[in-house]
């Protein structure tokens, strides 16, 4: 034993958990560290940070340091990892891992949470499986005594997948991938403007050596003309295929061409496909002769502050990792924390690592079907969505026989939300691919009812491909949106118009009013034969309050806008330090937006309509703020935030709360109210809203298509003929409207009976150190 080594602590009553980041950095790692530190401390553990990845474990000393609660303040908005990361050659060797084990024992650490890619997690699992031998060797070689090592018979490992590539099997998203996708989409959106102005082609190279997730999702989100991904290498004739698609789009009037290529793109023979090769083809004077440029996005894809999703994913997974450590027994296999659709889960770490490696092996062995099948369902769904919305537009072989083709009406009901246009674009593209006639109803039911007689086809007209092709990244609603329901417009008139325009199916996109509209139409079917057609609703609202789903498109865009607003407001207090901002959020009678934004920005308190506000609660929160400001170190220069939903109370508005805080603070700190208002509807939809909109909209039209027998009796007897599509837990489901209306809807409060996110509010409170305040009766 080295004489300089500190005396080993005896086994503490308290658990000692270490958190480490390893491999490539990714946005969201800092929120994960913050969550592990604070959740760990809240659960009575000591939490240590291991700096510089495995290098820190191997070297020990000052690279392993205990974290205090206040040290992770403000980390939610920081990009990269603040505890450093490194590739560590020594950890590949047993000798390095032996040193690491010794340092762990010397610091009394018996659980390690690692946030990194598959390499880092493989190393972690190896470390755990060798642990008993390593400890024995430390005793045998007299580096430590048997007594010192006695409390450290077992090591708990929990993995968090931090990676921008989204290359880990078993989870839909890795911490950081949506931020990277956001960066790519932002850049492609910029490039599109110049491409369109000059009628140019751009070949954009994105990261992804073994995984095409970024390229694929960017292709879906931006409406790229062609993509190249490792899992689906192009056949020998890829040159002809790409040129035919691009030529077809150009013939249809498109002025810009975007091709996205993953770093790891190959053809089926294993020959690399480079951006230069693609450029030469597009620019070929004998062929398309397009003015073509290459843009390699490089490290901008990694950088910057995490998007809202990565912040709360990192946070929730960090919390779950601490729970997993505390639940673990010596026999529990090492877990990693995954997310499937909307559900955070624990899964066996090594299986996921093996499956991930299997994808790379399958690609190397040119077994591409297998590589594709090993990716998650969402991946192949997205691939099909991409094919449908872009390249297959020229392929008439997928048209349905004429008698199966339908006239499908598309209507937007409610208030604009990010993703409404991309959903419409995808639905129209899918309809055209299948030979259906997609029809736009302008300005909701109000527009339908009032303007149908103004001029022929004033309110209803056929969509055309070129028109919608530009909507992949457009916010708002291009066909117009209105909150009026069919009953308000006049059901008889609406039913007569359905008959006039001979609709065979209806696709509604919108929020709670859209839900109400579908409910009214469903009930009116008994009376009006023209309404006996399949109908389905894609929930789209920033409030995320539509029953039948845990996620409405538009809510992610709203969260990102609100988060950016809060970050700026918080930062603005850096000069004065002692300031509380009381920010009013939208959300109707649902506290979803306020709560999730609270998770993403680290609010001191969130006030929701579900819980309400009482004077006792405010008094307790003001008392808490007093303590917090009194204990501030002077270095933590940023404001604090309270988020109040617009309908949390009839009396306590954001302004009144801010005034009360100011009055009670007695000049020890100050407060301001702030209302972002309609900014929350967002400008450009977020990539998550865009890609989910595409995927879900296509599923909706596929669902409508299934109703070949559209006789009144067949439609009336089939509960699936009026549905709402939703993400529920880990699945995408079509729920019959009747069931959702009767069993899942809190009509007076215009929200679902059961809101899955309610328990997340407790996490916001825990991580901000809010005491257990009195709740309203
Ligand atoms: P990214 O996806 O960003 O590349 P990663 O975690 O896969 O992240 P790697 O470079 O593969 O990145 O691994 C990071 C570190 O984890 C390595 O430098 C090494 O210290 C450790 N490590 C990786 N694989 C192993 C292994 N098989 N055995 C022991 N240690 C490993």
Automatic annotation (TrEMBL):
Keyword Metal-binding: yes
Subcellular location: Cytoplasm; Mitochondrion outer membrane
Reactions it catalyzes: beta-D-fructose 6-phosphate + ATP = beta-D-fructose 1,6-bisphosphate + ADP + H(+)
GO molecular function, one term: monosaccharide binding
Signal peptide as annotated in the record: none
Phosphofructokinase domain mapped to chain residues: 16-324, 407-704
Activity regulation annotation text: Allosterically activated by ADP, AMP, or fructose 2,6-bisphosphate, and allosterically inhibited by ATP or citrate.
Active site as annotated: 165
GO CC annotation: 6-phosphofructokinase complex; mitochondrial outer membrane
Family, similarity comment: Belongs to the phosphofructokinase type A (PFKA) family. ATP-dependent PFK group I subfamily. Eukaryotic two domain clade "E" sub-subfamily. Belongs to the phosphofructokinase type A (PFKA) family. ATP-dependent PFK group I subfamily. Eukaryotic two domain clade 'E' sub-subfamily.
Function: Catalyzes the phosphorylation of D-fructose 6-phosphate to fructose 1,6-bisphosphate by ATP, the first committing step of glycolysis.
Full protein name: ATP-dependent 6-phosphofructokinase
Top-level taxonomy: Eukaryota, Fungi, Dikarya, Ascomycota, Pezizomycotina
């Amino acid at each position: 034993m080295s004489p300089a080594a500190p005396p080993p602590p005896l086994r503490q009553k308290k658990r000692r958990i270490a958190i480490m980041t390893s491999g490539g950095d990714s946005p969201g790692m800092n929120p994960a560290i913050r969550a592990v530190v604070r959740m760990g401390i809240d659960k009575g553990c000591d939490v240590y940070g291991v700096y510089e990845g495995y290098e820190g474990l191997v070297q020990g000393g000052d690279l392993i340091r205990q974290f205090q609660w206040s040290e992770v303040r403000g980390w939610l908005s920081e990009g990269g990892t603040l505890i450093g990361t490194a590739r560590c050659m020594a950890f590949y060797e047993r000798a390095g891992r032996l040193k690491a084990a010794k340092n762990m024992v010397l610091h009394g650490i018996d659980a390690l949470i690692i946030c990194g890619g598959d390499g880092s997690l493989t190393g972690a699992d190896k470390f755990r499986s060798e642990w008993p031998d390593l400890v024995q060797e430390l005793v045998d070689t007299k580096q430590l005594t048997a007594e010192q090592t006695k409390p450290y018979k077992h090591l708990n490992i929990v993995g968090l997948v931090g990676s921008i590539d989204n290359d880990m099997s078993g989870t839909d998203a890795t911490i950081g991938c949506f931020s990277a996708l956001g960066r790519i989409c932002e850049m492609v959106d910029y490039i599109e403007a110049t491409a369109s102005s000059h009628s140019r082609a751009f070949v954009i190279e994105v990261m992804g050596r073994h995984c095409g997730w970024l390229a694929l999702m960017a292709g879906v989100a931006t409406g790229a003309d062609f993509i190249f991904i490792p899992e689906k290498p192009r056949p020998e004739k890829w040159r002809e295929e790409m040129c035919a698609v691009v030529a077809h789009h150009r013939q249809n009037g498109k002025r810009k061409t975007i091709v996205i290529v993953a770093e790891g793109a190959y053809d089926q023979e294993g020959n690399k496909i480079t951006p230069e090769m693609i450029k030469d083809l597009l620019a070929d004077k004998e062929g398309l002769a397009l003015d073509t440029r290459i843009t390699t996005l490089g490290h901008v894809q990694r950088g910057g502050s995490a998007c809202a999703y990565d912040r709360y994913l990192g946070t929730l997974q960090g919390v779950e990792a601490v729970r997993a450590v505390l639940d673990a027994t010596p026999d529990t296999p090492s877990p990693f924390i995954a997310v499937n659709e909307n559900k955070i889960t624990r899964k066996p770490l090594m299986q996921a690592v093996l499956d991930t490696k299997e994808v790379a092996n399958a690609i190397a062995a040119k077994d591409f079907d297998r590589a594709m099948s090993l990716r998650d369902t969402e991946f192949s769904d997205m691939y099909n969505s991409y094919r449908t919305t872009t390249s297959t537009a020229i392929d008439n072989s997928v048209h349905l026989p004429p008698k199966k083709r339908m006239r499908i009406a598309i209507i937007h009901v409610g208030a604009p939300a990010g993703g409404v246009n991309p959903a419409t674009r995808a639905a129209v593209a899918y309809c055209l691919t299948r030979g259906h006639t997609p029809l736009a109803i302008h300005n909701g039911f109000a527009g339908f009812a009032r303007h149908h007689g103004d001029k022929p086809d004033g309110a209803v007209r056929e969509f055309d491909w070129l028109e919608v092709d530009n909507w992949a990244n457009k916010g708002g609603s291009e066909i117009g949106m209105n909150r009026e329901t069919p009953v308000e417009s006049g059901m008889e008139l609406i039913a007569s118009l359905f008959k006039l325009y001979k609709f065979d199916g209806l696709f509604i996109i919108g929020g709670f009013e859209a839900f109400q509209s579908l409910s009214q139409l469903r009930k009116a079917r008994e009376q009006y034969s023209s309404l006996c057609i399949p109908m389905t609703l894609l929930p789209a609202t920033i409030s995320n309050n539509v029953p039948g789903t845990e996620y409405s498109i538009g809510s992610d865009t709203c969260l990102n806008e609100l988060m950016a607003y809060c970050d700026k407001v918080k930062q603005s207090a850096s000069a004065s330090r002692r300031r509380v901002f009381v920010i009013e959020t939208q959300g109707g009678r649902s506290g979803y937006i306020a709560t999730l934004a609270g998770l993403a920005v680290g609010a001191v308190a969130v006030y929701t309509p579900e819980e309400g506000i009482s004077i006792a609660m405010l008094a307790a929160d003001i008392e808490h703020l007093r303590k917090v400001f009194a204990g501030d170190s002077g270095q933590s220069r940023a404001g604090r935030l309270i988020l109040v939903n617009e309908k949390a109370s009839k009396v306590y508005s954001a302004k009144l709360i801010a005034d009360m805080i100011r009055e009670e603070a007695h000049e020890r700190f100050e407060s301001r109210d702030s209302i972002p208002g309609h900014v929350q509807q967002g400008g450009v939809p977020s990539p998550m809203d865009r890609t989910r909109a595409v995927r879900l909209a296509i599923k909706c039209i596929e669902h409508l298509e299934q109703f070949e027998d559209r006789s009144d009796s067949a439609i009336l007897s089939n509960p699936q003929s009026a549905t709402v599509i939703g993400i529920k837990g880990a699945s995408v489901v079509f729920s019959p409207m009747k069931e959702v209306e009767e069993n899942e809807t809190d009509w007076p409060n215009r929200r679902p009976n059961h809101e899955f996110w309610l328990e997340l509010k407790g996490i916001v409170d825990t991580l901000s150190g809010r005491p257990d305040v009195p709740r309203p009766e």
